[in-house]
Amino acid sequence: MDDKVYKNFHRLQRISEEIKKAIACIIQKYINDPRINRFSTISDIILSKDYTYAKVFISCHKKNHSFTIFSLKILNNASNYIRFLLSKRLNLRVVPKIKFFYDSSFIDGEKISNLLKCSKK
User: What are 18-47's pLDDT values in tens digits?
Assistant: First the structure.
């Protein structure tokens, strides 16, 4: 792999991780909306190559899917405020526009695990 490509990829990963930590902290400390599911976790962030857009994937351990989707709508409505707080927290030239998405991989993995447990018996 070319050194320049490797350095850019590594930088993209580092910035993604910092944004992930900062957004988790912002949601926990500054977004005091009881309609937001507090049992949610930021599972992944996909940052565009030019750092202008960030897809934030949220997974929930509760099985109430409609409550989770409602929480995502609220987070997407508050994304400009979260972006503002993110700009204060991180020293970035470009603060990405944030869009929240539902990540069902935890629930899908749990279903597969339960199926495998049942097939072994």
Answer: 999 999 999 989 988 888 876 778 999 999
pLDDT band at residue 5 using 50, 70 and 90 as cut-offs: low
Provide CB contacts within 8 A for 9, sequence distance 6+: none
Considering its fold, how many domains does the chain have in total? 1
Question: What range defines the domain where residue 79 resides?
Answer: 3-120
Please give the model's pTM, rounded to 2 decimal places. 0.81
Tell me the CATH number at 99.
3.30.300.20
* Pairwise CA distance, residues 23 & 79, whole Å: 10
Radius of gyration of the chain (CA): 17
The per-residue pLDDT of the chain, averaged, comes to 86
Give the DSSP letter of residue 31: -
d(CA 88, CA 55): 20
Strands 53-60 and 40-47: antiparallel
